[in-house]
């Protein structure tokens, strides 16, 4: 195996991007009010509930998809982040699936619940919390897309390493002659 890339995700960037999405959400809400952001104890309770709910659901979906793809996820906490990692290298396609699953699955569920009117304020806060919490996942996706489909990905808890299977040059030459 040959390591072809090593990417480290900056916690500062994560906070900046997450804050940016939060501010953008607030601005959009002023033009088209989805929820009333006037401070009240129930709004604060909904926000805390949404954060706790999404942390468990988001990481749970990562883990569930990893298990469905035949991998053994390891759950961890490195405040203020919660994460799922692996102690083995994972095929790029599987890693992309595990990475994107919470953003896609949970956001589709949240939008559906919002449309039908189920606990709209709570569901909207869950949607925004999940989207903001997916910034690291989107960053990983953007780093993986340029790499060949055959690479393996090693999660390093604060980034990823990209590995390529080492091919013996003599083996390649003999395969071309055949």
Low-confidence residue ranges: 173-178
Please report the total strand number as a whole number.
Answer: 6
Q: Structurally, how many domains make up the residues?
A: 1
Helix content: 55-70%
The structure class reads alpha+beta
The major sheet is characterized as:
4 strands, antiparallel
Give the termini separation: 25 Å
CA-based shape: elongated
Our estimate of the beta-strand percent is: 15-25%
Query: What is the string of SSEs from the N terminus onward?
Result: EHHEEEHHHEEH
How confident overall, as mean pLDDT?
Answer: 85
Largest sheet, spatial ordering of strands = 1-6-5-4
Question: Helix segment count?
Answer: 6
Q: Please state the CA-atom Rg, rounded to the nearest Å.
A: 20 Å
SSE blueprint and pairings:
Blueprint: E1 2-8, H1 11-31, H2 41-68, E2 74-78, E3 81-85, E4 90-91, H3 92-116, H4 120-133, H5 135-144, E5 152-155, E6 159-164, H6 169-177
Antiparallel strand pairs: 1-6, 2-3, 4-5, 5-6
Q: What's the short version?
A:
With 178 residues, this protein is α+β, with helices and mostly antiparallel strands. Helices cover 60% and strands 16% of the residues.
Describe this protein with a few key phrases.
single chain, 178 residues, alpha+beta, four-stranded antiparallel sheet, two-stranded antiparallel sheet, 6 strands, disordered C terminus
């Amino acid at each position: 195996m040959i390591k072809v890339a090593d990417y480290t995700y900056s916690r500062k960037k994560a906070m900046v991007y997450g804050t940016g999405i939060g501010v953008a959400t607030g601005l959009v809400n002023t033009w088209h009010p989805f929820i009333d952001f006037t401070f009240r104890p129930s709004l604060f309770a909904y926000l805390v509930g949404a954060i706790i709910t999404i942390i468990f659901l988001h990481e749970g979906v990562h883990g569930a998809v990893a298990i469905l793809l035949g991998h053994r996820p390891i759950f961890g906490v490195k405040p203020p982040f919660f994460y799922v990692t692996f102690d083995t290298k994972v095929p790029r396609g599987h890693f992309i699936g595990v990475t994107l699953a919470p953003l896609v699955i949970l956001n589709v569920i949240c939008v559906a619940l919002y449309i039908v009117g189920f606990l709209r304020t709570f569901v909207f806060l869950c949607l925004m919390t999940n989207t903001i919490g997916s910034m690291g996942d989107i960053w990983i996706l953007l780093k993986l897309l340029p790499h060949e489909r055959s690479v393996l990905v090693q999660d390093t808890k604060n980034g990823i390493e990209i590995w390529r299977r080492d091919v013996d040059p003599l083996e390649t030459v003999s395969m071309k002659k055949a």
